[in-house]
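Q: Sequence in, structure out?
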Amino acid sequence: MTLRPDVLAAILGMALASYLCRAGGYAILRVIRPPPFVQAMLQHLPGCIFVAFLAPALAGMGWPAVAAGAAVLLVQVRFGRLVLSILAGVGALWLLRLAGLG
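A: Exactly. Output:
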């Protein structure tokens, strides 16, 4: 298998563009401090992105997966422990499938 020069140039160009977008954001935030509400938004952004990817996947797997996701959310809100939340979600899905409901 050989790598064509145009494909290599496209890969390198996309890598450079990705790097410049990420590095550019850091460079701008070093010079300019965003207002407090923007800083608060940026702190919550990773969780929002995670939910945006996770919700359609759970919905596509049916109600047992949604119920397991709800178990994760409830345990996380109540105890604030990630490991317990993951165990609750996996356990809930496992029990629902074992009972023939999923």
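Residues 43-102 form one domain.
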